[in-house]
Amino acid sequence: MDISLEEAIKKHALPYRSSEDLNRIVDAIGSSKIVLLGEATHGTSEFYTIRAELSKRLIQERGFTIIAVEGDWPPSHAVNRHAKAYTDAEQESREVLQAFNRWPTWMWANEEVADFVGWLRLHNDQSAQKTGFYGIDLYSLWESMEEIIRHLSAADLSGSHLELAKKALACFEPFSRDPEKYAMSAIHPFNRCIEEVDKLLSALRQDEALYKDEWETALSLKINALVARNAEDYYSAMVRDDTLSWNVRDGHMAEAINEIRDSHGRDAKIIIWEHNTHIGDARATDMHREGMVNVGQLMREQLHAEGVFAVGFGTYMGSVIAARSWGAPFQKMTVPPARLNSWEELLNRTGAHDKLLLFGEDNHALFNRWVGHRAIGVVYHPEYEARGNYVPSKISQRYDAFIFINETTALTPIPIEKPIL
After folding, report:
1. CATH architecture of 5-65+274-408
2. Strand, helix or coil for residue 238
3. 417 pLDDT band (50/70/90 cuts)?
4. pTM of this prediction?
């Protein structure tokens, strides 16, 4: 390399002062139909608000009609019904977000998302082209099965699909809604419920025309059945191999994205909100050496011809909402200054202000080198961060653009009445 990474940042970083500076990213997205918007944590206000602002621009100016998030289908579809006025219930956006009662609730039940959902409802009320809000994760196995049975109890005149759904749910019933119990049992192949959920998904796909209506019932049935099938696979893999379970989960999210786009027509444009570890191409990280794939990689491999654009996010320091252990109450935590020579520390060192970078032919090679890139999950221990939390990455291969907020603040969770794990 002729110049250092620090010099490359000084030469190519653009100031980010206001939402007007997002014009450069909107222009760079061009005619892309798949836009992936990341986050370096699941609890930072600026990541959510900037992502929302960029999504509004893409909806209004570029005709995007799908928001797909790293959340479960049933609560996300409650938001979708609210945003598209599929229900007569008079609810505020904050009330609708009570549906996100599974830990970590703050990921989607927060004031930042509530503001965006309120905007989305108003936009849809005033627009002939509605934009939906959909969850693409797979943790809602039991809730998804219940949703299927509820739909089919009202709509399945023959009763054959309902019978398949009841058999599938009955197979999971002995495990008391405890994924770990099912995972341990599924070590033995004869204890698995894969046959039941496969039959259900196949039947619903074959006969989806029976359930097509203006409220997206067919899509909801199909995605919930897909969740049940892939969640079964995920939990059976969870106790055997971390790489396999990761790949099942991200493979499911990619499959759900394609199902949602198919339901809207293949020309539909989609915005995907997930953590950087899911949307940034895994082939440009050390994940690749472990045999892991992710949504960003799969989208580029599967949909390259349709245009795929990924935006990563990062911060040097600030505060965040996270928890000390899985299932523990959330806390507002301090995010310490980034580790020396990490991507975030270099961005701070070259000027302690917000920046954005666009990676193209003129500078791709300059940023195509290994550097540690911070990733904070829902479980976080700031005092141990220097020992981990950094993913070796080739930034210009991992993303098409990067938004850096030098000092960030924690998002504002909405209290949930009855949170569950």
Report:
1. 3-Layer(aba) Sandwich (3.40)
2. helix
3. confident
4. 0.96
